[in-house]
Amino acid sequence: MTVQQSGRRERKKAATRQKIADTALRLFLERGYDEVGIRDVAAEADVAVTTLFSHFASKEALVFEQDQDFEQRLAQAVTGRAPDEPLIPALRREIHALVRHCTAEGAAPIWRMIDGSTALREYEESMRLRHAESLAAAIAADPRLSRTALACRTIARFAIDAYPLARESDEPEAAVDEVFRMVEAAWDAAA
Amino acid sequence: MTVQQSGRRERKKAATRQKIADTALRLFLERGYDEVGIRDVAAEADVAVTTLFSHFASKEALVFEQDQDFEQRLAQAVTGRAPDEPLIPALRREIHALVRHCTAEGAAPIWRMIDGSTALREYEESMRLRHAESLAAAIAADPRLSRTALACRTIARFAIDAYPLARESDEPEAAVDEVFRMVEAAWDAAA
DNA sequence: GACCGTAACACTAACCGTTAGCTTTTCCTA
DNA sequence: TAGGAAAAGCTAACGGTTAGTGTTACGGTC
């Protein structure tokens, strides 16, 4: 009974959040990330600076909106895979999907912007660290896999590493496969 | 032509740099990293804020003074190893030494401070990314190792990953060995 | 020994991301 | 429809960082 479906408040909140994110991305692409200030974004989105920061924890977070989606999808790839599917192929499939998503048509300008800003590159890296840690937790929680906690953390890091390595490669799809042959060998060695 | 070591100017510069670093570390440990401002450090070291920033690129850099040493030692471990020594054991030896250095007596308060600050943890992570890239370059430049450029970058990342994984482990030395069994398997798989 | 170029340092004043403190608006629910 | 809470707003600051502009002290040269 307590669950409210109509939720105008939630819709408005989501709309505000989306408007801020869209405005920010547009301005960043138009004028460059470093040339656009938080106050510019807030003014253009017609919200207060404090409102902006109640929706996004930092300026960089405006760019990596899908952050939490990625994190959940990775954990889901482990916990939600078919009962008989081994870990590594499931992870490879998910990383493949992520890489495809980021190398799709239209995403190029965004990644050019990210590569051009030290702050954004560092933020992305620390984001991946969080992803690796939640992935490690998901792997460690799987009763089918008998490995040490350290091995789980290690393989999580290795798998996440595949993502930037592939993105910076000439042939991202082939790169994922090449890196994952190494990941799989590492996982087998931890048995 | 010849490198002047005795130059009074260089000695004074080095002394200023050292005084700033020592003062900063002392204040950080006394009062906590977040509780000490750049202006505090500059005042206590008796230099101008701009002088501090001409020696250190950021507040975090004050803590990671040995940054470039680490980077050089890693590359050196590859390029300077015995002619018949394989890559992985040489890397393992160096990572062992680094881990021992960071878990030594007296280093504990510094690492407690680092673990307590998000800014410092993120800085350390981006530092490691730089280390991994220069290590990858050193590996790729070795004519004895016939691997793809991607495999070199991959194994460099994997090896660097061992360092934080070990530091956060209960038994750092054993952790290095465990992770490196996986690293070695990955490297063999890339042949 | 006087001279000049330059590296190191200093000072002011800001810029920019971020936050605290507090008020106003919106809208759920009882 | 009133009460209360979530969301948004405003002001003012804090702290890291940099630009602009001198000033000093050293090193090589004549």
TrEMBL record, chains A, B:
<protein>
    <submittedName>
        <fullName>TetR/AcrR family transcriptional regulator</fullName>
    </submittedName>
</protein>
<dbReference type="InterPro" id="IPR009057">
    <property type="entry name" value="Homeodomain-like_sf"/>
</dbReference>
<dbReference type="Pfam" id="PF00440">
    <property type="entry name" value="TetR_N"/>
</dbReference>
<dbReference type="InterPro" id="IPR050109">
    <property type="entry name" value="HTH-type_TetR-like_transc_reg"/>
</dbReference>
<dbReference type="InterPro" id="IPR001647">
    <property type="entry name" value="HTH_TetR"/>
</dbReference>
<keyword id="KW-0238">DNA-binding</keyword>
<dbReference type="GO" id="GO:0000976">
    <property type="term" value="F:transcription cis-regulatory region binding"/>
</dbReference>
<keyword id="KW-0804">Transcription</keyword>
<dbReference type="GO" id="GO:0003700">
    <property type="term" value="F:DNA-binding transcription factor activity"/>
</dbReference>
<keyword id="KW-0805">Transcription regulation</keyword>
<feature type="DNA-binding region" description="H-T-H motif">
    <location>
        <begin position="37"/>
        <end position="56"/>
    </location>
</feature>
<feature type="domain" description="HTH tetR-type">
    <location>
        <begin position="14"/>
        <end position="74"/>
    </location>
</feature>
